[in-house]
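Materials and Methods. Structural model of Deoxyadenosine/deoxycytidine kinase. The 220-residue sequence of Deoxyadenosine/deoxycytidine kinase from Pleionea mediterranea was retrieved and submitted for structure prediction as follows.
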Amino acid sequence: MTNQNDISNKKFIAIEGPIGVGKTTLARKLAEYYQAELLLEGAEQNPFLPRFYQDPKSGALPTQLFFLFQRAQQLKELRQSDMFISTYVSDFLMDKDKLFAQVTLDTDEMSLYQQVYDNLTIDTPQPDLVIYLQAPVDVLLDRIRKRAHQYEFPISKEYLQKISEAYMEFFHYYQGSPLLIVNASGIDLVESHTDYQQLLERIEETSSGRHYFNPKPAVL
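The predicted structure was written out as tokens:
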């Protein structure tokens, strides 16, 4: 592994996975490590999200459109910037945006969403690497409870199960970028230097195709 924090062949890394899996934590650490620009979806900025968790039927469409506009604007700015100079790390993948829409919207809402999506995502830049974090639903629910965001309190195990299954199906067929699938259930990216260093090595080694990473337990 290089000591120069060099990922010159990866100008854009996107991190994905279900709610509570640690996308933003990893995105922040990688952006700091690689001195990269950080793109975050900013769930706390979405004024419709609390309503959605309280009443999914009435809140689904505005919640989804807000996220779509937010993500599209960030990627538009990325596309217009100098990609030969900057490296970017995001905690979202635009291609995945429709995953939540398909789970939460009814037929008419999905039709409207699709029209907006098609117009906003023309020439969306594709990541040089996608990192997909996986963890069991019970682990996700525990992490959500521990971080104690009030608007997330209504999230149910059933909803998380549905979202997790949608993620697994999406990435089963995903071929848009090199893909690193990470078992995040036993990873401690904050406290474990060993876990983090192992993951960095895999990131720097992954340049094409589909790969899997299960961290090795530390040798005592």
